[in-house]
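Q: I have 200 residues here and want to know how they pack in 3D. Can you give me a structure?
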Amino acid sequence: MIDSILKGLLATTPLEAVSVVFGLLYSILAVKRVRWCWVFGGLGSGLLVYLTWVAKLPMQAALQGYYVAMAVYGFWRWSRHQGEAVHVVSTLPLKAHLAAWAVILALSAGSSHILTGQTQAAWPFLDSLTTWGSLFATWLTAQVKLENWVYWIVFDAISVYLFVAQGLMFVALLFTVYLGVATVGFFSWHKTWRAHAQPA
């Protein structure tokens, strides 16, 4: 297994390496709630559209295309206000999360059925689950919701498995790092959230 990972890392293409660097910059800046994270995120996702399509992960390719669009939205939203109002960390009610999971699972089942019948997708359900779940997680990030990091931990873990299985070892390594970043991000944002939630 280790030999396979090392061979995969040595075979990393320049595009994959650059996408990893941009992805890391996005994650670090997002934890700090710096708007330029969206620029690096959009550039890295643009490269991953091509890489995941070639790797026969069509839902991941579509997801990366969505990330490019969300990068534009995120940068606009985090830039349009002067001051810190847009950066205040908040949460969603439990009912909203339950509804979101019901929709994510339903969409995943539907799209995996289509992919199984009409494409050569390698992992139709997991590919679909990470795609639909990450769509919601990205929206949560743009809205500065604390729970976005919990979603990223779950879907990044699944993505690591998918990318290793499809031979994208460097991207898998990136998503492994994302797991650590998401954990740091959660505790960092949680501290900010608690500070704002305290009564005056």
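Q: Anything worth noting?
A: The chain has eight helices and no strands. Helices lie at 2-10, 14-31, 37-54, 58-79, 94-118, 124-142, 148-165, 169-197.
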